[in-house]
Write a structure and sequence with these properties.
Blueprint: E1 7-11, H1 17-26, E2 31-36, H2 48-64, E3 69-72, H3 75-88, E4 93-94, H4 100-105, E5 113-118, H5 120-124, H6 126-133, E6 140-145, H7 147-154, H8 161-172, E7 182-185, H9 194-200, E8 206-208, H10 211-224, E9 236-241, H11 246-256
Parallel strand pairs: 1-2, 1-3, 2-9, 3-4, 5-6, 5-7, 7-8
Length: 258
């Protein structure tokens, strides 16, 4: 497979565009094929088997396009499907998980109080429980499912400040945020709310996501396989979605350049 082959990136909808955008910024010579499954969103309220079936179909779509790697730009799909997909395909399959380790490491050995905001399925899957078990003896970790934030992105309501702040207050007002060291954005949709989280929380509370770490990991893996695109290649991001409406097309393009 040529080093100029594309990279497949997918999500349950539009959230993974934040990951595709980060990869494009950090690896500008790569050709990225992005697929959002908005017609079947949200994944976070589906069963693990439903998510595995949908994810497998998407990767088959990518394989038909000759991708050299796949990034599951969705914490929920990673939780449910990454092991199956790695068993099924020989190319690198890069998953995502909430950046809990990053949040814990910020304390440099001191106990941290952390909220992990994610979809209901991500927070109840065994993969996250295993991740959390590595850190919960030394840190206080709260799970906060926020399914309505996914819907706000999918419905193109990121400019509706009142709706967003009302939703965030509904999820987070029962915390004393002044005592919280970090909020981990454990869903790629939530990255688009970063500025709103920064308004909600005091400046002492870090807002952490895993996009930059995912892009770096992808680069390391491709380099180890000798599959990084050459410096003379012209990179781009091609967007597609299971919802083929013009509204969705416009929304996806706007998020890519946001």
């Amino acid at each position: 497979m040529a080093s100029t082959a594309p990279i497949g990136v997918f999500d349950s909808g539009l959230g993974g565009i934040s990951v595709a955008r980060q990869i494009h910024r950090d690896m500008p010579h790569e050709h990225i094929l992005y697929f959002g499954d908005s017609a079947n969103a949200p994944y976070g309220t589906k069963t693990p088997q439903e998510v595995r079936t949908l994810s497998s179909a998407i990767v088959e779509r990518f394989m038909a396009r000759g991708v050299k790697a796949v990034v599951i730009a969705c914490n929920t799909a990673t939780s449910a499907a990454v092991n199956q997909l790695r068993d099924q395909y020989s190319i690198p399959i890069i998953g995502m998980e909430p950046a809990l380790k990053v949040a814990c490491d910020r304390g440099h050995g001191n106990p941290q109080r952390i909220i992990v905001a994610a979809t209901p399925l991500t927070l109840r899957e065994k993969k996250f429980s295993a991740l959390m078990s590595r850190f919960e003896s030394s840190h206080v970790i709260f799970r906060e499912p926020c399914p309505d934030l996914v819907e706000i992105v999918e419905h193109g309501q990121l400019d509706d400040r009142d709706l967003i702040m009302e939703t965030l207050h509904r999820y987070f007002d029962h915390y004393d945020l002044a005592t919280i060291d970090s909020i981990v954005l454990g869903c790629t949709h939530f990255v688009f709310f970063r500025s709103y989280f920064e308004r909600l929380a005091p400046s002492s509370t870090a807002i952490i996501d895993g996009n930059e770490g995912t892009a770096h990991h992808l680069e390391v893996v491709l380099e180890s396989w000798g599959k990084l695109a050459p410096a003379h290649a012209t990179g781009r991001v091609d967007l597609s979605n299971s919802d083929t409406s013009e509204r969705m097309t416009r929304l996806a393009r706007s998020l890519l350049t946001a």
